[in-house]
Amino acid sequence: MWDRARTDGDHVATKKNTKKVGKKSAKKVAKKRAKPAPIALTPAERSRKLRPRRDYRELIETFLRVWEENPSVRLTGLTRAQLRRALGLAIKAADKEDALRREADTKLRVLMDARLVAEDDLWRKLLDANALVRAQSRVDPRLAEAFAFLSDALRPESRERDDAEEPAAG
Where is the composition biased (Basic and acidic residues) (predicted)? Predict the structure, then answer.
């Protein structure tokens, strides 16, 4: 089991590992660890958030440029770097949202088309079934009574009347 050369005191030449095993810097470790939890706002919290103008990027970039041209302006609690960083985060979040929205819209369009095709097939089958029931009800009047709900539901003027009907003013 033991290598004989080692037990006899002889040294066996081994390949020296030349691969550098460096430690990761604290910054890299912290960056890898520090993934912020996704923000999930309640409807009340969402309604309290400010909605910036659509062209906020240009507005803030102009503000930053003018602020740099006027170094005498001192804003307590805010630096140009902080505002630039906040702008970058907002743009990054908006870009992510736009990309996800485009992807979701593409997937949703496919699902909507699939639903539309399935509902079209279903509705055609129901209309065909209604036509067959109406034909058979001429021979058997009980069928007309049993399926009267379907004839009423499919009657166009009945649906229009239901949509236009308003409660009587009294």
Answer: 1-13
Q: Which residue has the higher pLDDT, 34 or 54?
A: 54
| Residue span of the structural domain in which 133 resides | 46-161
**In this structure, is residue 13 part of a structural domain?**
no
pLDDT at 39: 85
- For the segment 67-89, the average pLDDT, to the nearest whole number, is 95
pTM: 0.52
Name, in order, each residue with C-beta under 8 angstroms of 77's C-beta and a sequence gap of 6 or more.
none
Examine residue 108 and state whether it is found in any structural domain, yes or no.
yes
C-alpha 89: how far from its chain's center?
A: 18
Q: How many domains does the chain have?
A: 1
66 domain residue, yes or no: yes
Q: Please report how the helices 80-137 and 56-69 are oriented relative to each other, as an axis angle in degrees rounded to 10.
A: 180
Q: Looking at residues 145-158, what average pLDDT do you find?
A: 88
63 found inside a domain: yes
Average pLDDT score over the chain = 84
Half-sphere exposure of 148 (CA within 13 A, CB side): 5
